[in-house]
Every structure is written in structure tokens, then in C-alpha cells.
Amino acid sequence: MSFAMLEHLTEIFLFPEVKEFWFVSIIGLLMVVIGEIFRKLAVVTAGRAFTHVIRIYHDDHHQLVTHGVYR
């Protein structure tokens, strides 16, 4: 999220001609923000079930999350 904001602000201040079509930039920025909020909600909802490690086998203590954004 920080890098997306940094890129957006850098383009506005250093390369304003790239941002001629403001509606496209605003839509893109909104998509980034909404996507990041959705991702954070998913991580919080998953709690201990969330990990960056891809597992092939089922752990005995693992519970499938079926509430919140995972409905």
C-alpha cells in the first residue's frame, strides 16, 4: 500500500503529464485502496489460519474459515 501511494504521489509531482486523465488515476487509486482494505480484512478474519506458507497436507489443528469475507 505504501509503495502504491509513493508511486502515485511521485507521478503527480515529478511526471504530471502522465496523469492527464485524472479519472483513470482516481479509479486506479480507489481500486488499490479497496483491494488493500479487503486483503487486511481477510487476514484479520482468518486469524491463526492465515499463513504465507502453502500447505499440501492438512494439519490436525487447522480450522476452515467460513465467516466474514470468506463466506
UniProtKB/TrEMBL annotation:
Recorded superkingdom: Eukaryota
Top-level class of the enzyme under EC nomenclature: transferase
Compartments, as annotated in UniProt: Endoplasmic reticulum membrane; Membrane
Keyword Membrane: yes
One of the protein's GO biological processes: methylation
GO cellular component, one term: endoplasmic reticulum membrane
InterPro entries tied to this protein: ICMT_MeTrfase
Transmembrane annotation, as ranges: 20-38
Annotated EC: 2.1.1.100
UniProt KW keywords: Endoplasmic reticulum, Membrane, Methyltransferase, S-adenosyl-L-methionine, Transferase, Transmembrane, Transmembrane helix
Names of required cofactors: Zn(2+)
Pfam families: ICMT
Primary location recorded for the protein, binned into one broad class: endoplasmic reticulum
Catalysis performed (reactions): [protein]-C-terminal S-[(2E,6E)-farnesyl]-L-cysteine + S-adenosyl-L-methionine = [protein]-C-terminal S-[(2E,6E)-farnesyl]-L-cysteine methyl ester + S-adenosyl-L-homocysteine
Membrane topology: Multi-pass membrane protein
Cofactor binding, note field: Divalent metal cations. Probably Zn(2+).
Molecular function via GO: protein C-terminal S-isoprenylcysteine carboxyl O-methyltransferase activity
Protein family according to the UniProt entry: Belongs to the class VI-like SAM-binding methyltransferase superfamily. Isoprenylcysteine carboxyl methyltransferase family.
Name of this chain's protein: Protein-S-isoprenylcysteine O-methyltransferase
Organism: Eleusine coracana subsp. coracana
Gene field: gb16701
